[in-house]
Amino acid sequence: MKRLSIIPLVFLTVASCKHADNKFELSGKIIGDTTGIVVLIQSGQHRFDADSSPIVGGKFHIKGNREHPEAFSLMTEKPNQRMFSPIRIFISPGDKIEIELNTENIEMSVIKGSLLNDEFQRYLNDVEMYGNDQFDRLRAKYEKAIEIKDTLKINALKIQINTFFENIEKVRTQKAYEYIKSNPKSFIAAYSLYTYREDFDAPKIDELLSLLDKSLYKSKYIYNIINADRNQHGTKASDFTLKDTQNKEVNFFTFSKDKVILLDFWASWCGPCREANPKLETIYQQYRDNGFEILGISQDRDMQTLQKSIEIDQITWINLLDIKGEKSVSNLYNFTSLPANILIDRNGIVAARNVSLSDLENEIVKLLE
After folding, report:
1. What was the pLDDT predicted at 80?
2. Residue 10 confidence (pLDDT)
3. Domain count, the chain
4. What is the DSSP letter of 234?
5. Residues 137, 34 share a domain
6. Residues 270 and 363 in one domain
7. 20 to 30 A Cα–Cα from 360, which one of 67, 114, 215, 240?
8. 216: which DSSP letter?
9. Residue 125 and residue 184: Cα distance in Å, rounded?
10. Around Cβ 307, how many Cβ atoms within 10 Å?
11. In-domain check, residue 120
12. 151-173 residue pLDDT tens
């Protein structure tokens, strides 16, 4: 799990108290280019589905609602923009945060009004961003070697950078381990354990889980660690209820009774998803009378966008609009990227995950026998 060149989305640390008001507000001004919009993205969420605010008079304002602290990235976006430089921010219920978002140098942005975010920034510097300055120097040397076409130096620096990655990741993992042990009541510790879960072996994860305060078990991070095996092959599929394009609630267990179901996670902005729709429609029409159903779980920002895409792609199966945050169905089924699907048999048991289009029809036929 390399984190040197990645800007991961962020989570928030909070005291274990409850807020009567779960709403939060971000108010800010832009330093630099004031065109476009400001986008606030949850972990695992696509920018097209995120909350956003237009920039008016060099200012922006975003409101939201959180039951628990959650990680976000904040960035500006202009039409046809390809590269994004987000800042990471902790948001907890009741927060009112003021931000100076510097579009010319994102690292110079200023966040005020949250001591918890201050704590998180210290954690990032001490753990996840540890060694970044050294990596930047190595990268500058590597780019210079490429510029002057110094083949020997390029090869030597490649080896040096690879070794650096391996060593620095071990250091960061150890720092995360020490932070979690020293801060068992902090939501940052829960976030850290989730972030580094693939770097810790099972005994170490069990050790750290046993140290954490039970109030942290309400966080999405600990919940996802404990329930990492949910909705995997051979397990009972989880129930959920979402609204369809007619604004009617559809309960999965009721809908799927005695049927083979393909849960298709997609969105209007997902090119590969849209490309797959004609093939899925062909399969659906061929097997729907035999007890096969597709249930689309859309990650679109709103129902209007979803309805338009359904019309354009001539989709005839039922589609539901997913909700945001830790209660989303995509989170329930452990999906963080699109396209994604899960095939469920007549008994409600997960038969397969992320089946390719080329294999899908064969898998459906087996389950319908």
Report:
1. 77
2. 34
3. 3
4. T
5. no
6. yes
7. 240
8. G
9. 19
10. 17
11. no
12. 999 999 999 998 998 899 999 99
